[in-house]
Design a protein that fits this description.
heterodimer; A: mainly alpha
Chain lengths: 245, 71
């Protein structure tokens, strides 16, 4: 365990492993997402209340799920970075922020587009939607903060603290549909209960969820490799790698 | 297959606009993230090349000066 932890902290080791994993993740993401999207768009049955507009769920739910789980992962990395001074933790935060912001933006946009035919409005300032918008601003805040700071150590600590403080928003998003009156429906699929939709609907949703995870992992590993190259610019192996490109 | 014709697939029972905008946004966000990462990678590599070139240049001219003073 500790040896693994130690290895994970080594940029050179991580760079190599990430490079070997990336093609697998990328192609798998493409295949799984294609299957999920085609299934969801063409073969899943229409909803008896919402008709075909519910097909947005196959994009909306995975994007919202990843927007939130990436933020939690960044907070864990922030804690690891502050406690153990692990440089790779900051590399993860730097790389996951952009991807998380993209997922949160996609969740908000598809939510608005889904809200129009279902609720009759693009936007409403209720708890779920507002807390999700706050999540997007947190991501953008981390990006702006990092862009404004030159010193890498101060930048790492400042963004770790911001990410950790902002994680309080995540349970608010999750429980907003239970604590407050909101237009947004509660979760359709829970780990602890049987899904409230037929298998012909939740099977493509699970496939899309898996595909989104693969895609996000691929993108983050790629960005982390870029970050490592910049951070370890004095290392000999980095220079040899650049020369070989 | 839930749709009898291509026309039915596009219109999605009148909800076509909302569904296709959502899936279009999905494609665009993925492409934007990939493009941003490709640009990031290019910037890192060109940064390294510049750094190495300027170092080689400094070492090269420093070596010549040393030669000149030695002879």
């Amino acid at each position: 365990m500790w040896q693994w932890f130690h290895k994970l902290g080594s940029p050179k080791w991580f760079f190599g492993i990430a490079g070997r994993l990336m093609p697998w993740l990328g192609w798998l993401a493409l295949v799984v997402l294609s299957v999920g999207v085609v299934w969801g768009l063409l073969f899943a049955p229409a909803d008896y209340q919402q008709g075909d507009s519910y097909r947005i769920i196959f994009i909306h739910v995975p994007a919202a799920y990843l927007g939130q789980s990436l933020y939690v992962a960044m907070a864990v990395a922030g804690l690891v970075g502050l406690v153990w001074r692990m440089k790779m933790a900051d590399t993860f935060i730097a790389s996951a922020t952009t991807v998380g912001a993209g997922m949160t933006f996609l969740a908000l946009l598809t939510g608005a587009v889904w809200g129009k035919p279902t609720w009759g409005t693009w936007w409403i300032w209720d708890a779920r939607l507002t807390s999700m918008l706050l999540l997007l601003f947190l991501y953008l805040g981390v990006m702006a903060l990092r862009g404004a700071m030159e010193d890498p150590d101060i930048r790492a600590r400042a963004s770790a603290i911001l990410v950790i403080v902002g994680v309080v928003n995540i349970p608010i998003i999750k429980y907003s549909v239970e604590w407050w009156n909101t237009l947004h429906q509660p979760a359709t699929i829970k780990v602890t209960e049987a899904p409230s939709m037929p298998v012909s609907m939740w099977a493509p949703l699970l496939i899309c969820l898996l595909g989104f995870h693969l895609l996000v992992a691929w993108l983050i590993l790629w960005r982390m490799r870029n970050d490592i190259l910049l951070r370890e610019r004095r290392a000999r192996w980095v220079r040899e790698w650049v020369l070989a490109q | 297959m839930q749709f009898d014709s291509f026309q039915a697939l596009i219109s999605m029972g009148g909800h076509g606009f909302y569904v296709w905008v959502s899936y279009g946004a999905f494609i665009l966000v993925i492409l934007a993230l990939i493009l941003a990462t490709v640009i990031q990678r290019r910037q890192v590599i060109s940064h390294h090349r510049r750094l190495m070139r300027s170092e080689a240049h400094r070492q090269g001219s420093g070596g010549k000066k040393h030669d000149a003073s030695g002879s």
